[in-house]
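ok so for the tutorial part 2 we go from a plain amino acid sequence to predicted structure tokens. step 1 is just haveing the sequence, like this:
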Amino acid sequence: MTDEQSARLEQVVGKLSLPSTSWRGMLRHFGPGLILMMTGVGTSHLVTAPTAGGRFEFALLWCIPIAYIFKYYGFEMAFRFTNATGKSLIEAYGTAWKKWPLWYVMITTIIQSAIGQAGRLAAAAAVAYYLFTTTVGLPLSQTHYGLVVAVSAVAIILYGNYAAVETATKILAGMLVACTFLVFFFRPVGLDAFSHFFIFETPAGSWLVIAAFLGLLPTGIDVSLQASEWGKAKKVGMGRIRPELERAGLVPVFDPFSSSKVDLAVDTSKIPAHGIEYCRRWFQIGLWDFRLGHVVSFMLATIFLLLAATWMYPSEVAG
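step 2 — the prediction. this is what the tokens look like for a chain of 319 residues:
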């Protein structure tokens, strides 16, 4: 690296403002972790947890901590990797032999998008139809609402207005958590119910529900890929500094079509001290973003099961 390149790097890195690592400061920058949490509040929380509580009362409560503990590091790795390298997991998959992970991700994503996203879109359209057509009287069908929601979502993502999505997510997540806790404390369960966290019971007919719990909670592990892409798109931390390091020749220019896994690494000893602190703070923010979302998601899943066990048990609904 020439003296001119070194001076330019120092100048660019020196202008980067250090994010606050206080709780209030970090909360302003949270995004991918909360998105991951809200993605998980779907089939697992709203269908499987109430089914478990309604049919088997508190017997399957032990499934929730097991699912969250065993999947914790799988999800956290996405945040660690992206904040440490400035690259996404998808780009890392591109360094594998014959790029086979990318083929796997493509196939599963297409299937998931065709089924999962269509289901979520239909649900959102149904809610909008009830609010604006049934209640207000707007002459629009559910198909129209679905089209508006789909086009709006795609436009926001393609435009790159991640800040707007993150702000909306924080507001909606706050409303969801507040309402859930309000209902829970209206008629709280006894402390003895929490002993089922440590009592491994498998009532007759519960294995399908157990499999659904362990597979769907907190959400599909593939969602970590989406969180990784979101974290990279924010262009903060190593994601902001790495392009400057590549231009200065301090790290290899990463090409997802030809680079090897070795090219993903970054020698932090070549980064100015201010840049190291900048990356360290964003790394810390990324981890706490995920951890907060993971803990809140765990609490919501637990409460949904407890609510069903309190209000719905015994339920004769099968399936």
